[in-house]
Amino acid sequence: MKHAHVHSRRPGRPGGWQQADQPDASDAGEWFAGRLPEAWFAGDPAVIVDREEITVIGRLPDAGDEETEARAAGRVSRFREETRSERMRIAEEAQARYGRKVSWGVETGGSGDGTAER
Q1: Can you give the residue ranges of every domain in the chain?
Q2: In which band, very low, low, confident or very high, does the pLDDT at 34 lie, cut at 50, 70 and 90?
């Protein structure tokens, strides 16, 4: 018994994979600046948006005197542990609003050349 293959035209544009319409994320930086607790970062975080993801990178408040790498790593670990549940809630809100996953990063050091972890 032979089976005939029927090719059906599906609605939409021809040409294979198509990117779904995504919500506009041009205001994501302002949204995160207003949504995040002020005590988390020294100033507004950097917010990088691409097609699939939003990356939020904040600078931890200055620790004062020269900070060793070990001390900076400890502060980053403490920040991550203490803020994890709230960061996850905020990420869920942002994902619903912008249709993209959220990644978090932190920087330490006062001059912009400090330690960065994601």
Answers
A1: 57-118
A2: very high
